[in-house]
Structures are given as C-alpha cells and as structure tokens.
C-alpha cells in the first residue's frame, strides 16, 4: 500500500493534468474536481503497481477519462458557460492563439480528449490509443477530424 507521502506527491504531480483533462471533458469545474478526486480514491483503493511514471500517468488519465464519461452519461451533457471554464484552466495564451482554447471547448468530447492528450499533454498516437481504448488509426482519424473541426470553428467564430 502506498504511503500518505507518496500519494500526496502523486496528487501534486498529476492533479493539474487530470483536472485540465476532466474540465475539458465535463465543461464544469465542480464536476472536474469530483472526477479527479474519485480518480485518486480509486488509485488509493486499487493500489496498482506501475512499471514507470509514464505508466502511472497513463493509468490515472484513463481512470479519470472513464469517470468523466460515466458522469456525462449520468447527467446528459449539459452546457456550462465557457467564461468560467477558461478562468479555471492555466494555459498561457498569447494573441496568436486567442480563441483556440474556446474553440477546443466546442469540439465533441471524442475529439477534444484526443486533441488535449496529443497537443497539450504531448502523448504519442499509440499511447493515446492505449489510454482511450481505441486503435492507433482511430486516434489518427480523430486528430485529423478534430483539427479540421477546430479550424472550422475558429475561423467561423473568432476570425470573423
């Protein structure tokens, strides 16, 4: 069983990443916090053995993404205002990327999670496939479609 000190260290190390992913999926800060908390509760209860820190991170992301999907199914995908969400994500934006994060929020969840894992968390396609339980080709297609949708939304909403 992991000791309190190592659990605290893991919460500090992975908590922000999990929160950003959950917030992008759930579009609600309180629900994102709940999902992250439940992820760490499962981590403590299961006490899994990992081969590396990347293995641990991938496991935590998978568990939190699954928890978010469960929460979305239960609540029926209600919309929250983007302003509150943007305040709660610590992403450095400059004038060149103004509106991109907002456009990302408008993507369907299956594209949003893949785009976030690839471009924000810098995971490789094969790693994303393992995390979300899809094939590498499915991840590549979602990235391609996600980029096209993001471009379409960005041009229509933020460059007009």
Structure description:
- The protein is an all-alpha fold.
- It has 2 domains: 1-90, Orthogonal Bundle (Rna Polymerase Sigma Factor, Chain: A), CATH 1.10.1740; 94-160, Arc Repressor Mutant, subunit A, CATH 1.10.10.
- Helix content is 74%, strand content 0%.
- It has 8 helices and no strands.
- The chain has helices spanning 4-26, 29-46, 53-75, 82-87, 100-105, 109-120, 125-132, 136-158.
- 27% of the residues are buried.
Write the layout of secondary structure elements.
Layout lengths: L3 H23 L2 H18 L6 H23 L6 H6 L12 H6 L3 H12 L4 H8 L3 H23 L2
Helix pairs in contact: 1-2, 1-3, 2-3, 3-7, 6-8, 7-8
Concise structural overview:
With 160 residues, the chain is mainly α. It contains 8 helices and no strands.
List its traits:
mainly alpha, 160 residues, 2 domains, Arc Repressor Mutant, subunit A, Rna Polymerase Sigma Factor, Chain: A
Query: Span between N and C termini?
Result: 55 Å
Shape: globular
Tally of helical runs: 8
The low-confidence parts are 77-83, 89-96
> In total, how many domains does the architecture comprise?
2
One letter per element, helices H and strands E, the order comes to HHHHHHHH
CATH topology of the largest domain: Rna Polymerase Sigma Factor, Chain: A
> What is Rg?
16 Å
Instruction: Specify the helix fraction band.
Output: over 70%
């Amino acid at each position: 069983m992991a000791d309190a000190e190592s659990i605290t260290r893991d919460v500090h190390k992975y908590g922000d990443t999990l929160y950003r992913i959950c917030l992008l999926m759930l579009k609600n800060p309180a629900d994102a916090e709940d999902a992250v908390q439940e992820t760490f509760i499962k981590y403590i209860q299961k006490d899994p053995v990992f081969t590396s820190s990347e293995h641990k991170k991938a496991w935590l992301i998978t568990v939190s993404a699954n928890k978010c999907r469960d929460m979305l199914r239960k609540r029926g995908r209600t919309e929250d205002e983007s302003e509150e969400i943007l305040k709660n994500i610590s992403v450095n934006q400059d004038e060149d990327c103004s509106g991109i994060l907002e456009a990302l929020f408008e993507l369907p969840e299956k594209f949003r999670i893949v785009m976030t894992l690839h471009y924000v968390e810098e995971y490789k396609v094969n790693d994303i496939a393992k995390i979300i339980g899809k094939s590498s080709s499915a991840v590549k297609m979602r990235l391609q479609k996600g980029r096209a949708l993001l471009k379409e939304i960005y041009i229509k909403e933020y460059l007009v």
